[in-house]
Each structure stands twice: as C-alpha cells, then as structure tokens.
Amino acid sequence: MSKTVLGVYNSSDEVVRAIEEFQNQGYSVTDLSIIANTTNVPSSIEEETGVASQEISATRETQTEERPGFLASLFTPFEDRMYQNDGSGTTYYDHLVAQGIREADALKYQDDLNSGMILLLAERRSGNVGVADNVSGGTIVSGQTGLEDTLDTDTPRSLKLREEQLDVNKQRVQTGEVEVKKNVVEEQQTLNVPVQHEEVSIERRAVDGTEADTTTPIGDDETIRVPIVEEKVEVTKKPVVTEELVINKKQVTETQQVTDNIKREEAKVNKEGDVSVNETTTDNKRLNPDSF
How would you class 15 by CB atoms within 10 Å of its CB: exposed for 0-12, middle for 13-18, buried for 19 or more? Predict the structure, then answer.
C-alpha cells in the first residue's frame, strides 16, 4: 500500500505534537510511521507515541533505465546526491519511491533527511483524513508538491521564515535583608567634679599675762568642738536621647543587560543548472547575500 508524507519536522517534540493532532483528525497509530537519519530519534518517538519507525535495508536496488522515468531524468544533476546515505545501502530516495512517493518529492525529502529532519508518513486509504496543509505547534510541513505541480501552475507559494525573540519578564524576589536593632555598649566615663570641704586652722597668739582670766582655777577641763563639713560625690545615671534613626525604603531603577542565543530561519536558494531566480524584498535586513 502506498504512503504519503504528512510533514517534515525539525525535532522529536514537533513530531509528537503532530502525531497527536493527526490522531485527532482520524489517523490511527498503525496508519502512521516515521523516517529519520538518526537512530535514537525514531526510537524515542516510537516509545512515546507507539508510531513505528521505518527501517531502511542495507542493500541498494540496482537502478534500471525504466525506473526513474521521464520525470527523474529531469533531475540528472542531482544523481550523485541521491546516494549520499552510504555507498552500498538503499538510499532514502529508493526507500521513498518504493512506498509510492513521487520521484521528484523523494529527491526533496531525501535532502530533508540528510539535513537531520524527520518525516511523518501515513498509509493512503480512502477512510483516512486528507493530508493536512499545516500542523500547529511550530512544525514545518512539506506537502506533496513537486516539480510536476510547479510546471503546471503559476500559483505563488509562500514559505514563512521564523525567528526567536527574547521575551523579558520581571519578577520581584527578595535578595537581602537589612536588620536595624539596638545594642547596649558599656564604656567607662570619667568626670571632674569640684567638691568642697572644711579644714580647721589654729592660730596661736602671744598674750599679756595681765589679761588672763584669773578667776578660773587652773586644772579644770575646757573643750571646744568644731564640726567639719565636706561635700561627697554621689553618682546616679539617667537615660537621655542622643540620636535618632529614620528608616525608609526607596525604589532605585538601574539597567541590566540580558544576553541569550536566539535562532532564526533564513531562506537559501540553491541553483543547479541553467536557471534564473529573481528575488525582491521589502526588508533589506532580511536579504541573505549568500542565497545566490
């Protein structure tokens, strides 16, 4: 039973999303299969989705003169590229043509496989939903459009180029904390305090004996008491306010640079043979000078 290519994808995640969407459209797991040039990629998809990966045998079929036909003869310049996979095994071209893929499309899909992309195929059945034009989720879908179509119609076709852009979000997070508290510090302080005290001075004077009191007999005691007073230092402590802290927060705006790697898609036109390609662009920045 012949197969059709539903899409060409850059990564396993894109293939998984596409498989889910095609299942929602009516495809069963047994209808679908995948081809890629990396062994680990199809096996991981098969484990996650149940879609089988196709194995390509190691022997290449002998190419007869009848097999390529008139259409393949138009691609004579691409003949060497058809056998890039290995020197002796079946090429992706042979494998795809054997499954009913048109020869012109098989050449194109072989280039996709050699560049590391993944093909999603389905059985051609009347009960199946038709081949989708695109699949959401960022996949790149390559429909069954080959040289035969482009020769028969002048309908323009479009290829969307995508790029990644940095999306910057800000989130408030606590990066630190300031704690203000009072600590008691003890130190020794010395003050000079003037104090007074009384002292007794005695002055002895010589007197004339005639002036002496002769009425009091000698021998009786006579005592004079003089109180002595002095100032004593008494120390007390009291708290006083010497300083005040006012604590506020303010918003400070500064500029930070963020750097990351981003990807973008560029269209590259390869010319082989005597062909003429005219390209116009509305954005000179997007024109790739290496395209021609």
Answer: buried
Q: How far apart are CA 20 and CA 177, in angstroms?
A: 49
* Integer Cα distance of 49 and 165 in angstroms: 31
Contact indicator for 161, 267 with CB cutoff of 8 Å: yes
Reported as a single tens digit per residue, the pLDDT across 28-62 is 888 888 888 766 677 778 888 888 887 665 444 33
Q: Count of CB atoms within 10 A of residue 81's CB?
A: 15
pTM: 0.38
User: What are 136's strand-pairing partners?
Assistant: none
89 band by pLDDT with thresholds 50, 70 and 90: low
In the beta sheet, which residues pair with residue 9? 118
Pairing relationship of beta strands 52-53 and 32-35 according to DSSP bridges: parallel
User: H helices of 50-193, where?
Assistant: 69-73, 92-98, 103-114, 147-152
Lookup: tokens for 214: 């002769």
Report the side by side order of strands in the sheet with 3-9.
3-9, 118-123, 32-35, 52-53
Straight-line distance from the first to the last Cα atom of the chain, in angstroms, rounded to the nearest whole number? 41
pLDDT for 283: 61
What is the C-alpha separation between 259 and 254, in angstroms, rounded? 17
User: How do residues 224-279 score in pLDDT, each as one tens digit?
Assistant: 899 999 999 999 999 999 999 999 999 999 998 989 898 898 888 888 888 888 87
Share of the chain above pLDDT 90, in %: 21
For residue 89, what are the CA distances in angstroms to 41, 78, 79, 98, 108?
20, 18, 16, 14, 19
Residue written as token pair 């209808």: 31
Angle at which helices 40-49 and 12-24 pack, to 10 degrees?
40
- The CA distance from 179 to 177, in Å, is 6
- 1: which 2 tokens? 């039973």
